[in-house]
C-alpha cells in the first residue's frame, strides 16, 4: 500500500503474530477471526510486501463460499431515493467534498456556491414525487447546518449560549437564505405516506443533541416518533481515533459513534454499518474497525448490513493537499469486501456499492462475499461532488439484467430485508413493487401524485 504520502506515525501498524495460512484455515472453517487474522487476510500475509494474487484468490473464494452458505444466490436491492437536506457544514472532514462552508449560505455572504438547503416542505415534495414512482426508502444524510436543531426547545437552548457559533456551532435560521426547519420537522416531512425513512447518522444525532444534556437515546426516540425508521451507520469512516485525528478531527470519536448506534438499537431502530477505507489508514486499522462493528453487533443484533465504501479521492482536501496520492486499488477493494464477509460472522448482508465501484467492479464484488447491490438512488449528490464517475440512478431493469448476467437471483427488498420479492426477469413491466405506491411501473415513468400540501 503506497497511498499515504506522509508517515503519520500511527501506533497501529499491520504487524501480527499470526500467519496467512493459519488465518485462511480459520476463515475456511468458519472460526471467529481475530484482528490479527483479519490483517493477514487483508494483506495476503504480512510476511511479504504487496498483494499475492494466488493468496488473494483463496481469500475471495472462502468469502464467496461463506456468502453462499449464509444467504444463498440471491442479490438484493432496494428502490430508494436520496434526499439530502443540506450541504451546509462546518465540520471540515478532509475526505469530504459534499459539504460547503456554512457561512456561504448566510443571507449577506455574497458568495456564489453550488450548495443547497431544502425546507421541510421541499423535502416533502421530493419524497412525494419519489413515492409516486414506486420508491420504498428515503435515505437522507446531510451536512451539519448550524441552524439545524432537534426542535424548538433545542433552538432555545442553543441560542442561550453566550457565543453559540463558537461554543455549539449554532446560528439562528434567520441568518440563512433558507431555513432547514428542525430535525423533527424534516423527519415528519420525509416519512409521510408510508415512506421508510433511513436517516440520522450518529454524527447527525450528535448535532441534534449538541449543547444539551440529552442522551442519544432521547434523540433517537423522538426522531423515531417523528417518523425515522432506520439509521445509516455512516460517519464511521475508520473507527480508530488515530485515523480520525487525521481525516476528520472535527467529527465525533469512535466511542461516540458506538454509543449513538447502541442508543438507536435500544430504541429498536434497524441500522447499517459502514467502513470508508483507502485513504491514510492501514490494514490493521481496517481489521480493528471490523472488530468494533462485530462487537457492536454482538451487543445489539440490529445491524442489517455492512457497507464497505472505497474512498473516492478526487477533489477531496486529502488529495488536493497532497496528504494522500490516491485511493484503494481494486485488489484492496476485493479483499475488503471478502474479509468483511469472513470477519463479520454476525452480520448477514454485505453490500457492493455501484456508486463507489461502478457496475463492472460492483458486480465482481458480488463474487467476493457481497450479496446486496445497494439501491436505485434517484438522486445521488455525494459521490458526484467528490468526483466519482458513477452516478445517479439504477432502474429495476438494470438490476435484473446485471444480476442475472452473473448467474444470481435478483430480489427487491425492504430496507430491513424483512420483505423480499424475487423478481422474474420475464415479467413486464419491470419496476418496484414494495413501496407504498409501487405497482411495478418502472421508476422513471412518474405518475402524478395529487398535491396534498
Ligand atoms: S463528511 Fe459530513 S460532517 Fe464531514 S464535512 Fe462532510 S458533510 Fe460535514
Automatic annotation (TrEMBL):
One of its GO terms (molecular function) is 4 iron, 4 sulfur cluster binding. PROSITE patterns: RADICAL_SAM. Residues 444-453 have a biased composition (Polar residues). It comes from the Archaea. Keywords: 4Fe-4S, Iron, Iron-sulfur, Metal-binding, S-adenosyl-L-methionine. Residues 418-453 are annotated as: Disordered. Residues 418-429 have a biased composition (Basic and acidic residues). Signal peptide: none annotated. Its cofactor is [4Fe-4S] cluster. This is 7,8-didemethyl-8-hydroxy-5-deazariboflavin synthase subunit CofH. Residues 75-345 form the Radical SAM core domain. It comes from Halomarina ordinaria. InterPro entries: Aldolase_TIM, CofH/MnqC-like_C, F420, rSAM, rSAM_sf.
Amino acid at each position: 500500500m503506497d497511498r499515504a504520502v506522509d508517515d503519520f506515525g500511527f501506533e497501529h501498524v499491520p504487524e501480527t503474530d499470526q500467519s496467512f495460512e493459519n488465518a485462511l484455515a480459520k476463515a475456511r472453517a468458519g472460526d471467529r477471526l481475530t484482528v490479527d487474522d483479519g490483517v493477514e487476510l487483508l494483506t495476503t500475509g504480512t510476511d511479504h510486501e504487496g498483494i499475492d494474487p494466488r493468496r488473494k484468490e483463496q481469500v475471495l473464494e472462502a468469502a464467496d463460499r461463506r456468502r453462499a452458505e449464509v444467504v444463498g444466490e440471491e442479490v438484493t436491492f432496494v428502490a430508494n431515493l436520496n434526499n439530502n437536506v443540506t450541504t451546509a457544514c462546518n465540520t471540515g472532514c478532509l475526505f469530504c467534498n459534499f459539504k460547503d462552508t456554512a457561512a456561504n449560505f448566510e443571507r449577506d455572504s455574497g458568495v456564489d456556491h453550488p450548495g443547497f438547503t431544502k425546507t421541510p416542505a421541499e423535502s416533502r415534495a421530493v419524497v412525494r414525487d419519489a413515492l409516486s414512482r414506486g420508491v420504498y426508502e428515503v435515505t437522507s444524510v446531510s451536512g451539519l447546518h448550524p441552524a439545524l436543531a432537534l426542535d424548538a426547545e433545542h433552538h432555545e437552548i442553543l441560542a442561550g449560549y453566550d457565543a453559540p457559533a463558537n461554543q455549539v456551532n449554532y446560528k439562528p435560521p434567520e441568518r440563512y437564505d433558507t431555513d432547514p426547519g428542525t430535525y423533527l420537522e424534516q423527519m415528519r416531512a420525509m416519512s409521510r405516506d408510508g415512506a421508510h425513512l433511513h436517516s440520522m447518522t450518529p454524527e447527525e444525532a450528535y448535532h441534534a443533541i449538541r449543547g444539551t444534556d440529552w442522551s442519544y437515546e432521547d434523540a433517537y426516540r423522538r426522531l423515531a416518533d417523528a417518523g425515522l425508521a432506520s439509521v445509516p451507520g455512516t460517519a464511521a469512516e475508520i473507527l480508530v481515533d488515530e485515523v480520525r485525528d487525521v481525516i476528520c478531527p472535527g467529527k465525533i470519536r469512535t466511542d461516540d459513534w458506538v454509543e449513538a448506534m447502541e442508543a438507536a438499537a435500544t430504541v429498536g431502530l434497524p441500522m447499517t454499518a459502514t467502513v470508508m477505507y483507502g485513504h491514510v489508514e492501514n490494514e490493521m486499522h481496517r481489521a480493528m474497525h471490523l472488530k468494533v462493528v462485530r462487537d457492536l453487533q454482538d451487543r445489539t443484533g440490529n445491524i442489517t448490513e455492512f457497507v464497505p465504501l472505497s474512498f473516492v479521492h478526487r477533489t477531496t482536501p486529502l488529495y488536493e493537499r497532497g496528504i494522500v496520492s490516491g485511493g484503494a486499488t481494486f485488489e484492496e477493494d476485493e479483499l475488503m469486501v471478502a474479509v468483511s464477509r469472513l470477519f463479520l460472522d454476525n452480520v448477514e448482508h454485505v453490500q457492493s456499492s455501484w456508486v463507489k465501484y461502478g457496475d463492472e467492479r460492483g458486480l465482481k464484488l458480488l463474487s467476493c462475499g457481497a450479496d446486496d447491490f445497494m439501491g436505485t438512488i434517484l438522486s445521488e449528490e455525494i459521490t458526484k461532488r467528490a468526483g466519482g464517475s458513477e452516478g445517479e440512478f439504477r432502474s429495476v431493469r438494470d438490476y435484473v439484467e446485471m444480476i442475472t448476467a452473473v448467474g444470481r437471483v435478483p430480489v427487491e427488498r425492504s430496507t430491513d430485508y424483512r420483505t423480499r420479492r424475487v423478481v422474474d426477469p420475464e415479467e413486464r413491466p419491470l419496476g418496484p413493487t414494495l413501496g407504498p405506491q409501487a405497482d411495478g411501473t418502472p421508476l422513471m415513468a412518474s405518475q402524478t401524485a395529487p398535491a396534498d400540501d
